[in-house]
Amino acid sequence: MASIRVENVEKTFGRFKALNGVSLEVRDQEFVVLLGPSGCGKTTLLRIIAGLEQADKGRVWIGDRDVTLLPPRARRIAMVFQNYAVFPHLTVYENIAFGLRMQKVSPEKLKANVERAAALMHIENLLGRYPAQLSGGQRQRVAVARALAVEPEVLLMDEPLSNLDALLRLEMRAELKRLLAESRTTTLYVTHDQVEAMSLADRIAVMNAGAIVQYDTPMRVYQEPASVFVGGFIGSPPMNFLRLRVEGQRVRLGSLDLEPPAEVGAEVLLGVRPEDLEVYPAEQPQSFAAQVLVVEPLGPHLLLTLNFAGQAFKATVPPDFPAAAGQTLWLRPQPSRLRWLEPGSGRAFATG
Ligand SMILES: Nc1ncnc2c1ncn2[C@@H]1O[C@H](COP(=O)(O)OP(=O)(O)OP(=O)(O)O)[C@@H](O)[C@H]1O
């Protein structure tokens, strides 16, 4: 097992800059998720680490080895792809053994590694079957077992759950979390699914337009997004951003009198998550009024869309909360959960 270090990697396709000076460090045994919208460069970064793509600039280390110029097979990595390509004409055993046969390991080691990887993925009883006789989730586990069988120093995974239907995907997510925790392999995992990223990662590297825009634990990324982009990309519904005027270093929001960071200009964005707004049917001290535009019953809660001074935002309330379109409600944000951001750049102000 080993750490991964990427330093200042750039990659251009024609005139399109897919990676714009990316640096990233994944600690030994850490599980890091690369998260971002389609086209932001996640797969390109993973392929550069795997050696399937050459960077224009920058370096890649695995452990203390500079692998920048090494071919994929010399990097001691294993990859699991979206379409996980298990070979249909080979049994589960032979699928898992595939990489080991390529490496020409001894028959004893081959058998031991296949059995260990199969046990880790809990598919010992399926070794004699062919892929056509497996469920999607089982095939997925064969692909992960095959990757782990070669004892890679790092495991690279590119959207490994995206071919599964929604329910199986949910099940496999928890399975994978448990199984990979047992294997303790350093893992870099690509997804555009923010819930998957939150669920699996020790740390999330959020990417946008060829750059890493925040790298932190899931809870920090969720509660303290570095920008409007991150707050909007993570969380469903996303974080609300209210544009407010600053007067005499204060921001008035209904009867709330807030102190923004010292560096603010004439306007500021106030970021607050829907679940961090307390909602009341009658006027309260330290609150602001808003009109209900839409009520959506979602089961565990009602999702409200409200209007404050021409700006729409969301809040959640318990399912039995009396809310109807057209009504006025009063909202009080939890002070510790407020986020101040700069309207021009969308960046969060540093908090103390
Ligand atoms: N071989 C290539 N030739 C030209 N452009 C490419 C090539 N590979 C990737 N790109 C472009 O580089 C950008 C980043 O692609 P990449 O596959 O890394 O994105 P991604 O974040 O993984 O997206 P997705 O989630 O859709 O897979 C995209 O705009 C893509 O079209």
TrEMBL record:
GO terms for molecular function: ABC-type transporter activity; ATP binding; ATP hydrolysis activity. Pfam families: ABC_tran, OB_MalK. InterPro entries: AAA+_ATPase, ABC_transporter-like_ATP-bd, ABC_transporter-like_CS, ABC_transpr_MalK-like, ABC_transpr_MalK/UgpC-like, Mo/tungstate-bd_C_term_dom, NA-bd_OB-fold, OB_MalK-like. This is sn-glycerol-3-phosphate import ATP-binding protein UgpC. The keyword Hydrolase applies. Its EC number is 3.6.3.20. It comes from the Bacteria. SUPFAM superfamilies: MOP-like, P-loop containing nucleoside triphosphate hydrolases. Keywords: ATP-binding, Hydrolase, Nucleotide-binding, Transport. GO terms for cellular component: ATP-binding cassette (ABC) transporter complex, substrate-binding subunit-containing. GO terms for biological process: carbohydrate transport. The gene is ugpC_2. The keyword Ribosomal protein does not apply. Residues 4-234 form the ABC transporter domain.
